[in-house]
Amino acid sequence: MRSSIQFHKNENILIGFIEGEIDIHTAPILKDELESIVLSDGMILELDLSKVIYMDSSGLGVIVALYKRVIKENVYLKLVNLSQRILRMFKITGLSELMDIEMQRATNAS
């Protein structure tokens, strides 16, 4: 299965909708797409993972690399709508203590 990401911008909020599987095969593609985002100081980047059906450690690596980048560029990263299985991965690794993770979106994507 493939993965895809679509972005919607609403003022200073950029919402990325990720869909599919994030594994050893698709993670490099997702990483490239996330690295191509132009970030600006004070921006909010929200990743909706509601349609991610599978994520392995390579997917976590992509998220960690993005997290490091947004910290350097003074951008706020929020992960929303994670499945219980994916949320568990973030909790086991301790990443849920570092990253803002919400089970439901607080912002309006329209």
From TrEMBL:
PROSITE patterns in alphabetical order: STAS (PS50801)
Gene3D superfamilies tied to this protein: STAS domain (3.30.750.24)
Membrane-spanning residues: none
Start and end residues of each STAS domain: 3-110
GO terms assigned for molecular function: anti-sigma factor antagonist activity
Highest taxon of source: Bacteria
UniProt similarity note: Belongs to the anti-sigma-factor antagonist family.
Full protein name: Anti-sigma factor antagonist
Species of the source: Ureibacillus yapensis
